[in-house]
Specification:
25 helices; about 50% helix; alpha+beta
Length: about 800
């Protein structure tokens, strides 16, 4: 075997161009599959970096009748922790957004509020100091400590080895850093790089006045659990059902009912996995198609090389070698080429992953992290190399080992020309079919992205700022915050060149629902009252005018709707029509919701109805929505909206300068235009279009290479025939058209099969498309025309060369 390896390497050194092309093409196909596998691994196989067997983690949350899974109330979490026996461990966590620092230097950092069992449960140890421990769980509010991520330690604290014991201001509260976590750990919210971890016992002091621990029914945290080795998932769910029934009996009548729901971490709605899964499926499907195209292309090259080695193969068979030996040598050659192809694919996949995650700090300083590396990716690369070697080499090897030895030796070792048989043509047709599918996907995704970019979400984000300000690090109370924002909006409204200005707590199209509360509608049946949860936003100033959201009935909020005035609300058209039949009939009715900090229930009168918009995602169905005035439901963190004339940087500068003129100590967390932020809402369509554009272009290029090689090889095999035809009067154009027709016949077959596959399986693309069908006729026609044109050009180049040969020279040397 070692002798065969040496011989094969010597022969490959004599054909560096062939070897280089095969390695490069295999690297492209293997790299695409490694990229898709890496992201699949990050979402499902080992989603939590730095945690062993993280795919075994399960989530217990509060299930609702509409299928949502949200945080558990704190008492329900305690019941899961203390009254279940089917789990080997229980820990609690929830997403937290912290303001770190004081005054104008404060910055927003994403992290988690966790139970003391969180790090021991996950098996994560600190690289400096300690992690949070169960002793940090009690008493409530008595442990102002945090553990920080390695990335934050390096970026903000200069990798200071003496950082343990340092006090920092978090949400206006002095907190002591007790440990730095290992570089491999990024939290348990899949896709998000969490950098600060605080005890959940500090939640009442860190959450701007809202006490989720002592407020009955308030959403607090999710439970992370692992099954005991001898317990099935069904048994765990049965135990939770018994506990759920007991908790339901103990709940007071004014606490909304929930259902304890056990789900895999891959289905946890708090992470990116549910949003990114369609994209990863798309990447996987396109990568497999690209790899098949690559293998068909390489198989054609291997077949051509086997024909060039006809003398060697005939000689080996003549001296006693059998077919198995010939097949082994061909497969060994493809395997030796697939190994560097796999290594190149590893490099390409890492480069592509870095490019996909580049510029990740764009929206609200969110830092994304996907656990897409590790030994499993290397193992998968080895498996792909072996698979590719067999797929590329087996059929050509078997075909080339079938030799009529007497005829081959009599003709100088000539084999039966594969170019005239069906096998090589089938390889080219397969390449064209896969290319048509990918190019059609590229065309459909491009139209989808354009449709998403030009879609009307119900509001106009153009020329509107979205400057996020947080007054808490500057020591503002809720009342003082309301006065600050009122003064800022009033200042902006009176500036020359400003059309309008307003406020909003949560931007639209952010993919996650950051604002959701239980609402009670006056006069509704009891069964409805206790089960109504709706999304809401806190707004102010000329919010609707700034975003050009039409008011359908009633009035807008006024400056007089302050804390001393009766509580009011504005609802959207869907809510008005669902419960009262029309926008006009909704006016004067009342809603009730728990007050944010105290939990006290307050009745609010509906004073206006506005048109529906897209709140979370472009594809969401019409959903009820409630707007609350910032003077009555004030939040220290608000986004300042201003529509005006001038370039983008000038508009942002006017808002930030106005805020600093009022109080320079108030930190400006983020200064961006609203259309930059809402772009996140159609990011999936953008990425889908980019992925399919790259893969489709690569597949089209491979199809062109395959057709070019097939036609060129056919011409080479038929040079004597061409010379004879031209000698007896055939014109160059007739020779040229003959071989172009060969390419077009292959294109016709490949396009026909590809269109059938797209029509049958196009629905698999629907999850990443917007406003266009996967079988869109214009896109399919464009793809078919593009592939046909590429194939015609690829066939025309060797055909043109064939038409220019000198028949006398050909016949002299034949």
């Amino acid at each position: 075997m070692l002798q065969d390896v040496r011989l094969t390497l010597r022969m490959l050194r004599r054909s560096p161009t062939y070897a280089g092309i095969v390695v490069a093409v295999l690297a492209l196909g293997i790299g695409a599959n490694l990229l898709a596998f890496g992201f699949y691994k990050a979402l499902a196989l080992s989603p939590i970096a730095g945690v062993a067997e993280s795919d075994d983690l399960l989530i217990i949350g509060a299930g609702s009748k509409d299928g949502r899974v949200e945080d558990l109330p704190f008492r329900d979490y305690e019941a899961v922790r203390d009254r279940t026996t089917r789990f080997s461990g229980v820990a609690g966590t929830t997403l937290a957004i912290y303001s770190v620092g004081q005054g104008a230097d404060a910055r927003r950092i994403y992290g988690e509020l966790v139970s003391g069992s969180y790090f021991p449960f996950l098996g994560v140890k600190a690289q400096f100091g300690r992690t949070l421990q169960p002793s940090d769980d009690a008493p409530i509010g008595a442990h102002p400590v945090i553990a920080i991520a390695d990335s934050l330690w390096r970026r903000r604290f200069g990798a200071d080895p003496g950082i343990v014991g340092t006090r920092v201001i978090v949400d206006g509260l002095p907190m002591t850093i007790v440990g730095v976590l290992p570089p491999s750990f990024h939290g348990t919210i899949v896709g998000l790089d969490c950098e600060i971890f605080a005890p959940f016992s500090m939640q009442p002091r860190l959450s701007r006045g809202f006490n989720a621990i002592d407020t009955p029914g308030a959403r607090a945290l999710f439970a992370l659990v692992r099954l005991r080795s001898d317990v099935s998932l069904d048994a765990a769910r049965a135990e939770l059902a018994v506990l759920d029934a007991a908790l339901a009996r103990d709940r007071s009548a004014d606490v909304p009912p929930i259902r304890l729901t056990l789900i895999p971490i891959a289905d946890w709605p708090l992470g990116m996995q549910t949003y990114a899964r369609p994209l990863v499926s798309l990447m996987g499907g396109t990568a497999v198609l690209l790899l098949l195209t690559v293998c068909a292309n390489v198989a054609a090259l291997v077949l051509a090389r086997c024909v060039e080695r006809h003398g060697e193969i005939a000689a080996r068979l003549a001296v006693g070698a059998n077919r198995t030996t010939i097949v082994r040598l061909v497969l060994l050659e493809t395997l030796l080429l697939a190994v560097p192809g796999a290594l190149g694919g590893l490099g390409l996949s890492r480069l592509a992953a870095g490019l996909l995650l580049a510029g990740q700090d764009g929206v609200f300083n969110v830092r994304f992290y996907f656990n897409s590396g590790g030994s499993s990716v290397f193992v998968f690369a080895v498996a792909l190399a072996a698979f590719s070697a067999v797929l590329c080499g087996l059929a050509p090897a078997l075909r080339s080992s079938r030799v009529d030895l007497a005829s081959a030796l009599r003709d100088g070792g000539r084999l039966h020309p594969p170019g005239r048989g069906p096998f090589r043509g089938a390889l080219v047709v397969a390449q064209i079919t896969a290319s048509l599918i990918l190019v059609a996907g590229m065309a459909v995704a491009a139209r989808s992205f354009l449709a998403a970019r030009t879609a009307n979400p119900g509001f106009d984000a153009s020329r509107v700022t979205a400057v996020t300000i947080d007054t808490q690090p500057a020591g503002y109370s809720r009342a003082a915050s309301a006065l600050f924002y009122d003064q800022l909006v009033h200042t902006l409204q009176n500036m020359p060149g400003v059309e309008s200005a307003g406020l909003m707590r949560v931007p639209f199209l952010m993919l996650w629902d950051f604002g959701r509360r239980e609402f009670v509608i006056e006069g509704q049946p009891e069964t409805t009252r206790d089960r109504l949860e709706m999304s809401f936003n806190i707004i102010g100033g000329d919010h609707f005018q700034t975003l050009r959201i039409p008011l359908l009935a009633g009035r807008d909020f006024a400056r007089t709707d302050d804390a001393s005035a009766p509580r009011v609300a504005i609802v959207n058209e869907t809510l008005a029509r669902r419960y009262w039949g029309s926008p006009d009939l909704a006016l004067g009715h009342r809603l009730q919701t728990p007050e944010w900090t105290t939990g006290a229930r307050t009745w609010m009168t509906i004073v206006g109805v506005v048109r529906d918009i897209k709140y979370i995602r472009l594809t969401e169905p019409p959903t009820p929505y409630v707007y609350l005035p910032f003077q009555q439901a004030s939040s220290p963190t608000m986004g300042v909206l201003m529509r005006g004339d001038g370039d983008r940087s000038a508009l942002l500068a006017r808002v930030t300068d106005a805020a600093r003129a009022i109080d320079p100590s108030v930190p400006i967390i983020e200064a961006r235009m609203l259309d930059d932020i809402t772009r996140l809402g159609f990011a999936i369509y953008d990425v889908a279009a980019r992925v399919l554009a790259v893969v489709g272009a690569a597949a089209a290029a491979l199809a062109a290479l395959g057709v070019y090689g097939s036609v060129a090889y056919t011409i080479r095999q038929r040079l004597r025939e061409i010379g004879i035809r031209m000698a007896i009067g055939a014109t160059p154009s007739s020779i040229r058209n003959r071989f172009i027709a060969t390419g077009l016949r292959l294109a016709t077959a490949g396009v026909a099969v590809g269109l059938i596959v797209v029509m049958a399986a196009g629905r698999l693309l629907e999850s990443v498309l917007y406003g266009v069908s996967a079988t869109d006729a214009l896109s399919l026609a464009t793809a078919a025309a593009a592939i046909a044109s590429i194939v015609a050009i690829a066939a025309a180049i060797p055909a043109w060369r064939a038409s220019r040969i000198d028949p006398i020279e050909v016949l002299r040397h034949s």
